UniProtKB/TrEMBL annotation:
Enzyme class per UniProt: transferase
Database matches in PANTHER family: 3-HYDROXY-3-METHYLGLUTARYL COENZYME A SYNTHASE (PTHR43323), HYDROXYMETHYLGLUTARYL-COA SYNTHASE (PTHR43323:SF2)
The protein, known as: Hydroxymethylglutaryl-CoA synthase
Organism: Lactiplantibacillus nangangensis
Keyword Membrane: no
Family recorded in the similarity comment: Belongs to the thiolase-like superfamily. HMG-CoA synthase family.
Length: 389
C-alpha cells in the first residue's frame, strides 16, 4: 500500500513588497537581495491574518466533503503559535468544519515541524488506510524592521492531505535524521522576533544537508543520479542553492546541469513569497511540480527538511501518474494578482499586528479578501470570522 501526499494547497497574503524597492530604502544594492539571497518579492502579512487564518485559508479550498469526513488527524506545525497552551489546530479544525472526533495537535521545532507532522501522518494512515490526515505548516517570519534578517521575512501556509494511494507523491520509509542542540536560531518566550546567528545558521544548514544526504546514499546504496530533483527548505532561495552546489561534485556534468535546472523551478514561487518557516520546503515542492514540465510519473524526488536548533531530515517520494490533479493549479495566478505595497505601507502593516496585551482590540478587515480573517480580541480571546458566512 502506498501512503503519501494526496493534495497540496497554499495560502499567503494578497500583499507584497518589492525586494529591489526594499533594498533601496535600506540603502543596499538591489542585487544583494535579488541575487545575494535570491528573493524578488516578500509577502506582507496584514494584521487580519495570523497562523490560524493562514492555515485555514490554505486547507479549505482543496478539501471535499469526502475528505472532511475521512480526516481524523489534524497537525498544525508552526513557530508562530497564537497561544502557549491551546493548539492552533483546535481553531483551524473549527474553522474548517472538521468532525469533533478529530485528533488536533500543534507541533514545534523551528522550520522542521511540518516534516515531523508528515511522517507522523504517514504512519497514522498506514495503520488506518481508510482515514486521511491533514498537515499544515503555517508561519509568519518576523525578524524586525531594519535588521539583518529583514529581507528573509515572509509568511504563508502549506496544507497537505496525507492518504493511502495518494495522487501526488508516494513517500518512502527510508529517511535519515539528525538532531543536535545548536544555537543558530531561537526565540525566547520574552521575544516577539527571532534571534539568529545568520552565517553560523547557514553553515549548519549545509552541514546537516551533507550529513543526512550522504548517509542516505550510503544506507540505501544509492547514487545522486537516481534523483530527478532535490528540493530544500528555503528560508531564502540562495541557501538551498548553496546546499545543492555542495553535493554537485557527486554528479556528472550532465546531471549537475539537470539538478540545477530543476532547482530553478523549485525555487520559482518561493522567490515571490519569502520565508515560510515550516511551509518552505513544501512550497518548493509545489513550485517544482507546478512549473517543471519535464517531470514524469515514477520520478524520484528528494526532500531536505531543516529546522534551526537544530534538526534535519532527508527523505524521498515518487511522483504518481496523476500528480497534477492534486496540485494548487491556481497559485501562480493568485501570486500575480497580489497588490504591491510601498515600503512605508509595509512598515505600517508590520507594526500593526495584534498587540500582546489583555486589552480588547479590533482589526480592520475591510481590505482583506480571504475567507478566514482575524477580527480582533475580546476578553483575551482571539476572534476569527468566516467571511463567507
Amino acid at each position: 500500500m502506498k501512503v503519501g501526499i494526496d493534495k497540496l494547497h497554499f495560502a499567503s497574503s494578497h500583499l507584497y513588497v518589492d525586494m529591489a524597492e526594499l533594498a533601496t530604502a535600506r540603502k543596499e544594492a538591489p542585487d544583494k537581495y535579488l541575487i545575494g539571497i535570491g528573493q524578488s518579492k516578500m509577502a506582507v502579512i496584514p494584521p487580519s491574518q495570523d497562523a490560524v487564518t493562514l492555515a485555514a485559508n490554505a486547507a479549505a479550498p482543496m478539501l471535499t466533503a469526502e475528505d472532511i469526513a475521512a480526516i481524523d488527524l489534524l497537525i498544525v506545525a508552526t513557530e508562530s503559535g497564537v497561544d502557549n497552551s491551546k493548539a492552533a489546530a483546535i481553531y483551524v479544525a473549527q474553522l474548517l468544519g472538521l468532525d469533533r472526533r478529530v485528533r488536533t495537535v500543534e507541533m514545534k521545532e523551528a522550520c522542521y515541524a511540518a516534516t515531523a507532522g508528515v511522517k507522523l501522518a504517514q504512519d497514522h494512515v498506514r495503520v488506518h488506510p481508510a482515514k486521511k490526515a491533514l498537515v499544515i505548516g503555517t508561519d509568519i517570519a518576523r525578524y524586525g524592521l531594519h535588521t539583518p534578517g529583514e529581507p528573509t521575512q515572509g509568511g504563508g501556509a502549506m496544507a497537505m492531505l496525507i492518504s493511502a494511494e495518494p495522487q501526488v507523491l508516494a513517500l518512502a520509509d527510508d529517511s535519515v535524521l539528525l538532531s543536535q542542540d545548536v544555537m543558530d536560531f531561537w526565540r525566547p518566550l520574552y521575544h516577539t522576533t527571532a534571534l539568529v546567528d545568520g552565517k553560523y545558521s547557514s553553515n549548519i544548514y549545509i552541514d546537516y544537508f551533507q550529513d543526512v544526504f550522504k548517509t542516505y546514499l550510503n544506507e540505501q546504496q544509492a547514487n545522486i543520479a537516481d534523483f530527478k530533483a532535490l528540493t530544500f527548505h528555503l528560508p531564502y532561495t540562495k541557501m538551498g542553492l548553496k546546499a545543492l552546489q555542495s553535493v554537485l561534485p557527486l554528479a556528472s556534468e550532465t546531471q549537475q546541469a539537470a539538478l540545477l535546472a530543476h532547482f530553478e523551478h523549485a525555487r520559482q514561487l518561493n522567490r515571490q513569497v519569502g520565508n515560510l518557516y515550516t511551509g518552505s520546503l513544501y512550497l518548493s515542492l509545489l513550485s517544482l511540480l507546478l512549473t517543471d514540465a519535464s517531470l514524469a510519473a515514477d520520478d524520484l524526488i528528494g526532500l531536505f527538511s531543516y529546522g534551526s536548533g537544530a534538526e534535519g531530515e532527508f527523505y524521498t517520494g515518487r511522483l504518481q501518474p496523476n500528480y497534477q490533479l492534486g496540485l494548487d493549479q491556481g497559485l501562480p495566478q493568485r501570486l500575480a494578482r497580489r497588490r504591491r505595497v510601498s515600503v512605508a505601507e509595509y512598515e505600517q502593516l508590520f507594526n500593526g499586528q495584534l498587540a500582546l496585551t489583555a486589552a480588547d482590540q479590533t482589526i480592520d478587515i475591510a481590505d482583506d479578501p480571504h475567507r478566514f480573517v482575524l477580527v480582533g480580541q475580546q476578553n483575551e480571546q482571539r476572534q476569527y470570522r468566516d467571511q463567507w458566512l
